[in-house]
Structures are given as structure tokens and as C-alpha cells.
Write a structure and sequence with these properties.
The protein has about 375 residues and is α/β, with parallel strands linked by helices. The protein has helices spanning about 40, 60-80, 90-100, 115-150, 155-165, 170-190, 200-240, 240-250, 255-290, 295-305, 310-335, 340-375, and strands spanning about 1-5, 10-15, 20-30, 50-60, 80-85. The protein folds into two domains: about 1-100, STAS domain (Transcription Regulator spoIIAA, 2-Layer Sandwich); about 140-375, no CATH class.
Length: about 375
């Protein structure tokens, strides 16, 4: 079966075969001319899949994109598969951007089988992990080049970022750390008071803050504060084509924009974690003195019987790794952001989610490693 709709410039033909509607585009597509109508072309047909070809298209502009947009919307509404594999990558990318900017509540395309969906999701996850590993590798290579030529590193930018993610984060880190220490003390007191082990609240607070909660809570706070800021800043620069301008001038974006932020966050995170440890312990001391009548000197003496420098070192190592994770997630999502205001917002959200997820995974890996090493 074959239907043809054409005007002076743009032409489109459709051929149906066993539930597959093959659409062939040709001619010159101009927005100033009347374009073929998809609804007139498809008529009352309800194919299971639609495949598009455009090898014979000589010239095109947004008129072609609007036709493909109508086709995509009809496919989603009628549950038909839409195959653009034969369409040039540039046209396919522009059509996806147009479809994303006009998202509606039309029914989800369920024409693909469950196994197909699982396979596509697996390929997408593999692609994303490959992008992450590629970005990490690029950062490592750029850092190696900087060690050979330290004069090319932007130390002033690094100091500015260190102030923003370090000193400017002290108020929120202080509040969270004290409240975490207070919460741990109240929770531990519920169990310890039943057995007359009030004094062991010092061991609980000391080990929890130094080994785990100080680094973890600081990382979560900075993931929401600094990681999102990195993603928003780089995403906005990408939307304004500033990163493209740097690449045109031969300045690598990773070396110019990413490394100063990574170094600043990697250095500031351990210091903030130590600060958080101290304030968390202070919060525990306040609760122990007010609730359990344990003097601060007794609390401190008991804590030192359990907490040593190896515990402090494990927390500092975790904090340094968490800082690099937050910086990498923020910068990666910023460089991957779409060139729009909505894309910048999505990049900031994705940076926070990615950072927190990787922090939890890294924390679990550290727990296993330190247990094997006996630390």
C-alpha cells in the first residue's frame, strides 16, 4: 500500500508492510512553503512501527523538524514504535531537543517489549558509566600535565573556590555537626542508661563522629551546596557558549575550569570533616553533661581510651575521597548540561543525586577495606 503527499518542494511517501510503515522523505523542505501533513499521510492506518528515511532530502530547515515532531507525537499517542536510525545524527538530535521542549502527558510508548526495555536501560547505564570513567581519566591526565607545568595552573581560581567551598561552608557544617552529635547522644543514651553504661556514650559519640558521621554528613552538605553550584556554574557557561569559546582558543575546559574546583574541594573537605568531628563531639558532651550528668573531663578521658589517630585517619581519608567525588559529579553534570535554563536546573539536580549515590557506594567500599585491613 502506498500513499503520497507532496508540494512543490517537500515530498513524503509511505509504504506499509506487515505492520511497518516506512516513511521516505525527499525534496527541499522550507519553512516558507507548505509542508506535507503527517495526519493526512497516515490517515486511518495504525501501524505498529514507523521507520523514517531521508536519503533523498536535498535541503531542510525547521519545516522537516516540525514534520518529525508531529510523527513522534502521533507515535507516542498511538503506542507505535518510532525508528529514526536511518535519519542523520544531526537531524535526530535536533528532533529529540524539540520533542523534549514540548513534553506533554501523552501515553508512554509501550510498543517495546520488556526485554527490549531492559536491554536499552542496560546500554544507557553502560554509556553513562563510560562517560564517568572517561571524564575521570581526562581529569587524571590533566592533573599529570599540571604537575609537570605547575605554572599553567590557575592558583588564584583554586584559592577563590577554596574560600567558597571551605570558609563559606562553615556555618551550615557547624549547625549540622552539632545537631548530629546531639542526636547521636540522645539516641545512645536511651540504650546505655538501661544497663548503667552511661559513660560509654563518650565512646559511641567519638567513634561515630570521627570514623563515619563527620566525613559523611559534611560530604552530603557539600554535595547539596557546592556540587550543585559547580554544575550550575559550568552548565550556565555551556549554555552561553563560553566553554565552546575556550575550546576554540585551545584551552581545555577540564584544565581551566574543573581542576581548580577539584583541588579546592579535595583539600577543604578533610579540614571541614575534622571541624565537623570536633563540633559533633562538643554536641555529645553537652548532652552527656545535661542529661547523664557526665562531666566534660570524664567524657574526654573515656573517649580517648577508644579513639586514636587511626580512627581520625580513616575519617580524613574518607573525607578526601568524598570531596573528589562531589567535585567530579558537579563538574561532570555541568559539562553535560543542555544549553537551556531548564537544562542547567536538571544538571544541578543530577549532580546532587549522583554525588550522594557515589558517596554512599564509596563509604560502603571503605568500610569493607578498613575492616579487611583491621583499621
Amino acid at each position: 500500500m502506498s500513499d503520497v503527499a507532496e508540494n512543490l518542494n517537500a515530498r513524503v511517501s509511505a509504504t506499509t508492510d506487515a505492520g511497518l510503515l516506512e516513511v521516505t522523505l525527499s525534496g527541499v523542505w522550507r519553512i516558507t512553503e507548505t509542508r506535507p501533513s503527517w495526519n493526512d499521510l497516515v490517515g486511518s492506518q495504525r501501524p505498529a512501527r514507523v521507520r523514517v528515511r531521508m536519503e533523498e532530502v536535498k535541503k531542510w530547515d525547521s519545516s522537516l523538524l516540525l514534520f518529525l515532531f508531529d510523527l513522534q507525537q502521533w507515535s507516542r499517542a498511538n503506542g507505535a514504535g518510532c525508528d529514526f536510525e536511518a535519519v542523520p545524527a544531526k537531524v535526530r538530535a535536533l528532533a529529540e531537543q524539540l520533542a523534549a521542549s514540548h513534553e506533554t502527558s501523552v501515553p508512554f510508548d509501550r510498543s517495546e517489549s520488556f526485554l527490549t526495555g531492559v536491554g536499552l536501560a542496560t546500554q544507557d547505564a553502560r554509556r553513562k558509566w563510560a562517560e564517568i570513567l572517561s571524564f575521570v581519566g581526562e581529569c587524571v591526565l590533566s592533573a599529570a600535565r599540571i604537575t609537570r607545568l605547575p605554572g599553567k595552573f590557575r592558583w588564584r581560581d583554586c584559592l577563590d573556590e577554596a574560600q567558597q567551598c571551605g570558609a563559606m561552608a562553615l556555618p551550615i557544617v557547624s549547625l549540622v555537626s552539632v545537631l548530629v552529635g546531639v542526636t547521636l547522644a540522645y539516641t545512645g543514651a536511651i540504650a546505655l542508661r538501661q544497663y548503667g553504661g552511661d559513660i560509654y556514650i563518650a565512646d559511641l559519640i567519638g567513634l561515630s563522629m570521627v570514623r563515619e558521621m563527620g566525613a559523611l554528613m559534611t560530604a552530603v552538605v557539600l554535595a547539596g551546596r557546592t556540587g550543585a553550584a559547580f554544575a550550575a556554574t559550568l552548565g550556565n557557561m555551556k549554555a552561553n557558549e563560553e566553554i565552546d569559546a575556550l575550546e576554540t582558543l585551545g584551552i581545555p575546559a577540564v584544565q581551566f575550569l574543573v581542576l581548580p574546583r577539584l583541588l579546592a574541594l579535595g583539600l577543604m573537605m578533610p579540614l571541614l570533616a575534622l571541624y565537623a568531628n570536633a563540633l559533633g563531639i562538643v554536641g555529645g558532651i553537652m548532652v552527656a553533661y545535661g542529661l547523664l550528668a557526665i562531666p566534660p573531663t570524664a567524657f574526654w578521658a573515656e573517649m580517648l581510651t577508644t579513639v586514636d589517630l587511626s580512627d581520625v585517619a580513616t575519617g580524613v581519608i574518607k573525607a578526601g575521597a568524598f570531596g573528589l567525588i562531589v567535585g567530579l559529579a558537579g563538574c561532570l553534570r555541568g559539562l553535560q548540561a543542555e544549553r537551556s535554563a531548564a537544562g542547567v536546573g536538571r544538571a544541578a539536580t543530577s549532580a546532587v543525586v549522583t554525588a550522594i549515590l557515589l558517596i554512599i557506594v564509596a563509604d560502603a567500599i571503605f568500610a569493607v577495606i578498613f575492616n579487611v585491613l583491621g583499621l
